[in-house]
């Protein structure tokens, strides 16, 4: 086993090393012929010393020219926002302060798992000028990822020696879920549907909680409503006036359990659900509603209290970008009880989960039935493409007939359970993975247009 000290020494040598260039290797190979010629002329040692001494002298001159590479600067420039399964350009910018052009080969220590279009890049940096190398990187999962060092290989003017150096350029990047629907919403794609839904406010005879303005104190006002700061500034008593809250509450429940980690075309069900949840949050905040989030599996992972405005969407994205499904079974009772304690006002509760849980988890149906007494419940699940293919295929063998029959039976049970939920007053959405976000947004707008909340 190699000790840590020896191992670290080897890594330092790799990051700061001198290597023979292609012409130096060719020169030593040619030296064999020179040595044989000298031996034939009975001057082998003389030829060996003169030839190799001259070659080494040229190599030392080449090394001297490359001593100034320590003054080379390199930096990495890339997008501030990275999104899952999107190509992002990474620029490596070099500046050469030396008086001669410098051929350089570049390698970047990109995060493990990222897919890149090329590993090694070659550029020629002009004297006293800069140059750049560009490659494309595609993140494979959300969360925090770290870029490390940038490795450079400089070839000398005589091409006898190569200088290898590593430059510290460590930085962390955050990879977010795809934000296509969020950009579409902010770009006004759903503006016409939003205008049809109008602006609704909750009607209540109770005092609201949104501050409206101040007015002079009258004897019937409650003392606790007096604004003492404004009163001291004006020299007379001033009372705060509050208005009812504008918009409604949207509670998003995000299942982070085991079944949400199933992958389809390299993307998990959880990734698709998170993308749709962000789209729902964006459209609701655009409309003036308040949005909260509760992410759970067998415990509560994240809680984002209700809020509104564009700043709340940023908070929403930051709170969820590194969430990952775990290997535990989802505890719906804990999640729904936690939501009931945290959010008592009537809300549109949107549960992103797997359809199999909706079908086979009888306890979940009981919890949703209790939740429906106070809130409007929307369940969101992703269709199973494998099950659909098996149910629609044309069987050619006995085993295929059996698979088709089982798939059709599972499809029938699935539709029956979803229809039962709809008959009980819930909204059950079951959409393809690539159309999940638009389907959730249109369902939300339909609910608003019908004023069902």
Question: What do these coordinates show?
Answer:
By secondary structure, this protein is of the alpha+beta class. It has three domains: 16-176, Immunoglobulin-like; 180-200 and 246-449, 3-Layer(aba) Sandwich (Rossmann fold); 210-243, no CATH class. The chain contains 14 helices and 22 strands. It has helices at residues 4-15, 22-40, 44-65, 180-186, 191-197, 228-234, 269-287, 310-320, 332-342, 355-360, 362-371, 385-392, 398-423, 436-449, and strands at 16-20, 73-78, 82-83, 88-95, 102-108, 115-116, 121-125, 130-138, 143-147, 150-155, 161-167, 171-176, 210-216, 238-243, 249-255, 263-264, 267-268, 290-296, 300-307, 347-352, 376-382, 427-431. The strands form six sheets. It has a six-stranded mixed beta sheet with strand order 19-18-15-20-21-22, with helices on both faces. A five-stranded antiparallel beta sheet has the order 1-11-10-5-7. It has a four-stranded antiparallel beta sheet with strand order 2-4-8-6, with no helix packed on it. A hairpin with a 2-residue loop joins strand 16 (263-264) and strand 17 (267-268). Helix 7 (269-287) runs antiparallel to helix 8. The protein is elongated, with a radius of gyration of 33 Å. The relative contact order is 0.09. Mean pLDDT is 82; it is low at 1-13 and 199-206.
């Amino acid at each position: 086993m190699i000790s840590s000290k020896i191992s670290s020494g080897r890594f330092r040598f790799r990051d700061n090393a001198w290597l023979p260039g292609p012409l130096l290797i060719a020169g030593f190979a040619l030296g064999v012929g020179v040595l044989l010629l000298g031996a034939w002329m009975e001057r082998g040692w003389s030829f060996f010393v003169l030839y190799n001494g001259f070659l080494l002298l040229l190599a030392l001159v080449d090394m001297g020219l490359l001593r100034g590479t320590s003054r080379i600067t390199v930096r990495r420039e890339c997008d501030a926002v990275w999104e899952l399964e999107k190509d992002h350009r990474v620029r490596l910018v070099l500046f050469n302060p030396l008086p001669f052009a410098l051929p350089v080969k570049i390698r970047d220590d990109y995060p493990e798992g990222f897919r890149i279009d090329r590993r090694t890049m070659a550029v020629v940096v002009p004297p006293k000028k800069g140059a750049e190398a560009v490659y494309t990187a595609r993140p494979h999962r959300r969360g925090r990822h770290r870029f490390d060092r940038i490795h450079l290989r400089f070839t000398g003017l005589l091409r006898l020696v190569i200088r290898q150096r590593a430059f510290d350029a460590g930085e962390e990047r955050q990879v977010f879920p795809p934000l296509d629907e969020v950009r579409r919403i902010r770009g006004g794609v759903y503006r016409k549907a939003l205008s049809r839904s109008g602006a609704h406010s909750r009607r209540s005879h109770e005092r609201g909680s949104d501050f409206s303005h101040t007015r002079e104190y009258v004897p019937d006002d409650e003392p606790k409503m007096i604004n003492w700061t404004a009163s001291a500034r004006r020299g007379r008593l001033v009372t705060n006036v509050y208005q009812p809250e504008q918009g409604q509450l949207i509670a998003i429940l995000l299942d982070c359990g085991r079944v949400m980690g199933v992958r389809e075309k390299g993307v998990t069900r959880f990734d698709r659900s998170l993308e749709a949840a962000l789209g729902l949050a964006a459209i609701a905040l655009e409309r003036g509603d308040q949005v909260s989030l509760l992410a759970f599996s067998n415990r509560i992972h994240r809680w984002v209290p209700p809020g509104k405005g564009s700043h709340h969407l940023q908070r929403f994205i930051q709170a969820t970008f590194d969430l990952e499904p775990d290997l535990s079974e989802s505890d719906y009772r804990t999640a729904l009880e936690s939501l009931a304690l945290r959010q008592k006002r009537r809300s549109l509760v949107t549960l992103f989960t797997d359809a199999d849980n909706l079908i086979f988890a009888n306890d979940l149906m009981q919890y949703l039935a209790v939740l429906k007494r106070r809130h409007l419940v929307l369940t969101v699940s992703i269709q199973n493409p494998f099950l659909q293919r098996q149910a629609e295929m044309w069987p050619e063998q006995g085993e295929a007939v059996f698979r088709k029959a089982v798939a059709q039976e599972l499809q029938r049970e699935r539709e029956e359970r979803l229809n039962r939920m709809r008959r009980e007053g819930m909204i059950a959405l079951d959409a393809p993975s690539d159309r999940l976000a638009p389907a959730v947004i249109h369902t939300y707008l339909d609910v608003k247009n019908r004023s069902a909340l």
